[in-house]
Structures are given as C-alpha cells and as structure tokens.
Specification:
By secondary structure, this protein is mainly α. Helix content is about 55%, strand content about 10%. The chain contains six helices and two strands. The chain has a two-stranded antiparallel ribbon with strand order 1-2.
Length: about 130
C-alpha cells in the first residue's frame, strides 16, 4: 500500500530502485528495444533543439581538445559572432569549409582563440 505522505513514498520508491538496480536497468533496456522508433524520434527531436545543438557543439569542442573554464560562455560568444574575425566574410553554422563557422584554438594549450571561416582556418592562420 502506498504511503500517504508523498515524501515517504518517494523515499520508498528510491530505495526499491537502489535495491533492484539490475531489474531497473533490464526494464529500461527492454522498453528502449520495444520503443526503438520513439527513441530515435525523441533523440532526433532533441538534437534539433537549441539545447541539443549546444550539447553537441560543446562535445565536439571537447573531443577536438578545446579547453576552457566556461563552455557555456564560450558557446554564447561563438554564437554571437556573425562574421569571420579574420577576413570579415558572413558566417553560417554547420560543418565544412568556405564560410562555415570554425572555432580556432591553440593545439598546444587547447585554448580557444578566434571564430573564423573555413578558408581562414585552413590557410591564413596556419
């Protein structure tokens, strides 16, 4: 019988999950297998959201060795730049060369330096 007090009920449920962690993991795994299309759709929808794009971009930066104390600030600064800070060309978000945004960084220290276009990132700043 559930507890009348929601706090006691929540604590009881939490303890049950801790005591049955393997069953909980198996149930989650089975639910994902049974709902594979929903999981894919939810993931795609999240990746297209503002927060999903931010998490992806920061993850890419970390993977490429960019190091900072404040990734949130770096992301906001990066998004506020609309022109290459080297040649002035209009920038677009995305991947590739040409006028796509690139966050140049010091490959020794990992510190971010400047937001540039793909051309400047590959040719001028080397």
């Amino acid at each position: 019988m559930p507890h009348k007090c929601p706090i006691k009920h929540a604590a009881c449920c939490k303890q049950w999950r801790l005591d049955n962690i393997e069953k909980v993991k198996q149930d989650i795994k089975q639910w994902r297998l049974d709902n594979i299309e929903k999981v894919k759709q939810d993931k795609k929808q999240y990746n297209q959201s503002d927060n999903g794009k931010k998490i992806q971009k920061i993850g890419i930066w970390k993977h490429r060795g960019i190091i900072t104390d404040d990734y949130e600030f770096l992301y906001e600064w990066y998004n506020s730049i609309n022109n290459c800070l080297n040649c002035g060309v209009d920038l677009i978000n995305g991947t590739g060369v040409s006028n796509h945004k690139h966050l140049d960084h010091d490959h020794t220290t990992g510190e971010p330096c400047i937001v540039v276009c793909g051309h400047c990132n590959l040719h001028i700043l080397k």
